[in-house]
Amino acid sequence: MHSTFTITMLAPSGEGKTTYLSSLVDAVQKDFLTHIPLEFNLDAEAEQALTQEKQKLVTTLSKGTIGYRDGIQSTADVGEYTLDIAHPSDDPFLTLRFVDLPGEWLQEDPDRVSAYVDRSTAIFIPVDTASLMNDIRGNHDQQAILDILIQAFDALTEPRLVIFIPTKAETYVGTREGTQQVMDKIAEVYAPLMHFLTQQSLVRVAIIPIETLGSSQLMYFTRGGSNQLLQPVFSVTERHRFNPRNTEYPLVYLLSFIFELYYLRRSYGVMGFFRNLFRGVHYLKNYSRQLGQPFATLPEFKVINEGFMQIQKR
Ligand SMILES: Nc1nc2c(ncn2[C@@H]2O[C@H](COP(=O)(O)OP(=O)(O)OP(=O)(O)O)[C@@H](O)[C@H]2O)c(=O)[nH]1
Ligand SMILES: [Mg+2]
């Protein structure tokens, strides 16, 4: 049985949706996946498009400062990137479809965003940490996100995953206190959204800060973009040293969740009973546990809500 799961990037313009996705190219080659005897393949077109975006980021490190939009340009239309998962020399049994939307749609065409989110198993919400920590953002975007999620999570029958991904976090997440400050600030600023999410028994919620660039520090804010909002400008601390940190972890957590979900789906019903008896997909539960391990132990990540509760008790 082949299953496809959709993951939608949900955030206003400039928070780092496309930048995060460009890190998938490297993430799928990391050790955490080579320890698992499955094959992970980005489709060729996705790999090419995302590698190009990544290259633009790398190029920004050749100068002393990085202004807003020096790296990746604003997304004009939907981008879709698929990651196939297969047993060696077999057809894929799982496909993850990542959807990158133009952030402007959140205000201009929320129904179109909703249509994607409603069909998504996981929602990734990148948050520009530099702006967050300096109280730059208003909260009308949060309301738009909340409205979309209230609609999407109404009468859920299957678990969902929401990951907050603080991006542009280089200045803050190098230390334990800095990370804690980011977590606290998200809890404060996103209180209405968090309040809603933690009440959903089928929604798993985590915060996983990343640095997609590294080698940079926040300098100041200047107006930029089509709507002339204040945007962070970074200084390059080590030229030409592309040094991302933790960018693989949203994917690790996603896979842990998806494997568990896939396992549960396959374990239902009469056929599921027999599959279980013969341990048909039991290995996926083990992979899920293995991949979920860092989130129970590492202080850089925070799980807000476990979700899944009702289903696991069945
Ligand atoms: N220093 C630093 N800059 C980042 C990071 N992530 C994103 N940026 C910068 O932020 C800018 C905006 O990021 P995008 O990924 O284009 O944002 P988006 O959410 O896709 O925006 P739209 O496509 O307009 O909706 C890019 O030009 C990046 O250079 C990060 O982790 N660190
Ligand atoms: Mg984009």
Secondary structure blueprint with pairings:
Blueprint: E1 3-9, H1 17-22, H2 24-27, H3 31-34, E2 39-42, H4 44-60, E3 65-66, E4 79-86, E5 92-100, H5 105-108, H6 110-118, E6 122-128, H7 129-133, H8 140-152, E7 160-167, H9 176-189, H10 191-198, E8 203-207, E9 216-224, E10 229-236, H11 249-267, H12 269-277, H13 282-297, E11 302-305, H14 309-313
Parallel strand pairs: 1-5, 1-6, 6-7, 7-8
Antiparallel strand pairs: 2-4, 3-10, 4-5, 8-11, 9-10
Helix pairs in contact: 6-8, 11-13
Bound molecules: guanosine-5'-triphosphate and magnesium ion.
Characterize the structure shown:
Pfam families: DO-GTPase2. It comes from Siphonobacter curvatus. This is Double-GTPase 2 domain-containing protein. InterPro entries: DO-GTPase2, P-loop_NTPase. Residues 10-186 form the Double-GTPase domain. With 314 residues, the protein is α/β, with parallel strands linked by helices. The chain has one domain (3-313): P-loop containing nucleotide triphosphate hydrolases (Rossmann fold, 3-Layer(aba) Sandwich). It has helices spanning 17-22, 24-27, 31-34, 44-60, 105-108, 110-118, 129-133, 140-152, 176-189, 191-198, 249-267, 269-277, 282-297, 309-313; strands at 3-9, 39-42, 65-66, 79-86, 92-100, 122-128, 160-167, 203-207, 216-224, 229-236, 302-305. An eight-stranded mixed beta sheet has the order 2-4-5-1-6-7-8-11. A hairpin with a 5-residue loop joins strand 4 (79-86) and strand 5 (92-100). The protein is globular and about 60 Å long. It starts with a strand and ends with a helix. 40% of the residues are buried. Bound molecules: guanosine-5'-triphosphate and magnesium ion. Guanosine-5'-triphosphate binds next to helix 1.
